[in-house]
Amino acid sequence: MNKITLKRAIAVSQFVVFTSMCHAEQPAQEWLFKDLNQNDYGITVSGWAQASVADSNHGDQLTPATVFRRESGFTLDQMGIMIEKKVKSNLISRVGPIPVEKSDRFDWGFNITAMYGADNFFFRTYGLDDDWGGNKVGNFGNTDYYSTLTQAYVELYFPYLGGSNLMLGLFHTPLANEIGFALPSPAPTDFYTHTYSFIHGPAKHAGALWSSYIFNQPNSTKLSYELGLAKGYNSLQDINNNWDVIGNLRWRSADFKTWIDFENIYGNSADDSVSDCACGSPIPSDSTLAHDNSLKRYQSYLTLTHHLDEKNTLIAEASYGHQEKSLLADVFNQIPYGTPKTGGKNASWSGIDLSYLHKFNPKVSAAIRGEYFDTDGVHVLLPFSGSYRALTSNISWQPVPYLRLRPEIRYDWYSGHAKPYGADGNYAPPLIHGRYDDQFSYSLDATFFF
Questions:
Q1: How far apart, in whole angstroms, are the C-alpha atoms of residue 280 and residue 238?
Q2: Which among 342, 340, 353, 343 has a CA at the least distance from the CA of 305?
Q3: What DSSP designation does 31 have?
Q4: CB–CB of 274/129 below 8 Å?
Q5: Are 292 and 343 in contact (CB under 8 A)?
Q6: How confident is the model over 154-209, as pLDDT tens digits?
Q7: What is the rounded CA–CA span in Å between residue 191 and residue 392?
Q8: What digits encode the pLDDT tens for the residues 15-72?
Q9: How far is the CA of 146 from the CAs of 162, 291, 376, in angstroms?
Q10: What is the mean pLDDT of residues 322-343?
Q11: Could you read off the pLDDT of 64-97 as tens digits, one per residue?
Q12: Which residues of 332-357 are buried (b: 16+ CB within 10 A; e: fewer)?
C-alpha cells in the first residue's frame, strides 16, 4: 500500500467523525433472501462479505501483529452464507442469559455456516475440510483463499433447570471475547485485528455443549453455566482420541449492565497440531519426542463487560494458558534452531486486554484497546518468548444498514530475545525471525451484509 492509499484511509476516518446524526439502524442481514425467509418454519438465510486493504511501516509480512495473515494490499477476508433456525430459549448458547421469560415448551434449531476467504486458513477443521481440493496450504500470503464448513450443529431447548440448551455438532468455541457467530455476523468483534490472547485459543469444536442456569429469578442477577465435551481444538477427529472438557460460568447483573464470563478448557493436546495441513491446534506438542502420550493443556479467560450507558462500554479480559511439553517453546528458544532433544518443555502464557467503546450516534462508533501479553513462545504465529504490547484504535461507520466501513490503526512492540515483526516473505507457520521489535500497521475493512 502506498502513501496515497494511507492518506485516503486517514481521510475516511476523519470524515466519519463528522457524519450527520441519524436514526438507529443495525446491519441488515437477510434482506437479499427476504422472500425465502418468509416461511412457516422459522428458517432464515443470510450472509456477509468482508474485504480489506492493509499495510505496515515494514511492508509485506503483517503477521503476527494483525493475527490473521495480512500481506500488504487487498484481501478478501470472509464471504459467508448462513442457514439457521434459531431455537426459542431464555439463554443463548456461548453468550449466556438473556432477559426474556422462560418458555415451558421444548424447541429446536440448527445452524449451517459456510465460508470462503483468507481467514479460513484458521477456520479449517482437521478431518473435515482441511484436505478439500482448494484448501491445500501454499504460500502464507493473501492469494490463498480457503473454503470451510464453519459451523454445522443442531440445538435443543429443554424447559428444565430454569431453561437449558444442548448444542450437538460443529460450532465456534465459547471461549474468548471476540469469537463465533452466536451474535450477528461476522464474528462480533469491535476491532479488525485481534488480541494475542485471542489467537492462542481454539476457533471451533466438534462435540456437545450443554447450557443451563444455576439461578434465574425475576428482577434479580442471573448465573448460567456451560459444560461441554469437544474433540480438541479445530478438529473433527482428535488424533489422541481424547475429549477436551469445557466449563464456563456467566453472571449478569439484574439490569444486565454488567457481565462476568469465566471460560475454561482442559484436555490432552498430544499431537493435535497437524503439520501436513497446518491445521488443528496452533499450539503444537509431540508425544513421540516427549515420550508421553498425555500432554495436558489448560486455557482460561475471565471477561468483565460493563455498559456505562447506551453509548459507552468498558471491557477487560484476562487470560491464562499452560501446555505440557510445548514443542515450539523448546525449538525457537535455542540457536541454532533444531529438533528438540527433550521433546519440548512445560510452558505458559497470560495476558490482559482493556477496551473502551463509544457510540457517537447509531451510525458512527469508535473503539480503543490496549493489551499486554507474556508468553514462553508456544504458538505457531508467536513462537518467540517475551512480552508483547499493543494499542489499537478504530472508527466504525455504517452509512447504510447493509454496509460497515472501519479504518483502524495499531502499534505493537515487543521485549525479548527475538525480532517478531517484519519477516521477509510470507512463509507458512511457524513464522521465522523478522527484523524489528515493533510495528505500526493500518487497515481499512468493509463488510457488506445481505
A1: 9
A2: 353
A3: G
A4: no
A5: yes
A6: 999 999 999 999 999 999 999 988 765 545 544 557 899 999 999 899 989 999 99
A7: 8
A8: 233 332 233 344 566 778 888 888 888 999 999 999 999 999 987 678 887 766 556 7
A9: 41, 35, 30
A10: 77
A11: 877 665 567 888 888 999 999 999 999 999 999 9
A12: bbeeeeeebeebbbebebbbbbebbb
Q: Which of 262, 229, 232, 259 is nearest to 248 (CA)?
A: 262
Q: Is the pLDDT of residue 3 over 50?
A: no
| E strand segments, 90-201 | 91-92, 96-97, 107-117, 146-158, 164-172
- Mean pLDDT, to the nearest integer, of 233-262? 92
Taking the C-alpha atoms of residue 19 and residue 10, their distance in angstroms, rounded to an integer, is 15
* Chain CA centroid to CA 72, Å: 21
Cβ neighbours, 10 Å, residue 231:
24
Q: Of residues 420 and 28, which shows the higher confidence score?
A: 420
Q: Is the peptide bond before 186 cis (omega within 30 degrees of 0)?
A: yes
Q: Coil, strand or helix: which one is 91?
A: strand
- How high is the pLDDT of residue 68? 61
177, amino acid identity? N
Domain ranges of the chain: 3-449
Number of C-beta neighbours around residue 99 at 10 A:
11
Residue type at position 169? G
Given the candidates 2.60.40.1930, 2.60.40.10, 2.40.160.10, 2.30.130.10, the CATH classification of the domain at 3-449 is 2.40.160.10
Question: Cis bond leading into 64, ω under 30°?
Answer: yes
Return all residues near 425 (Cβ < 8 A) that are at least 6 apart: 60, 61, 139
pLDDT level of residue 339 (50, 70, 90 thresholds): low
Q: How many Å apart are CA 404 and CA 398, to the nearest integer?
A: 4
Give the whole-angstrom CA distance, residue 45 versus residue 41: 12
- Cell numbers that stand for 299 in this block: 486455557
H helices within 303-403, ranges in order? 327-331
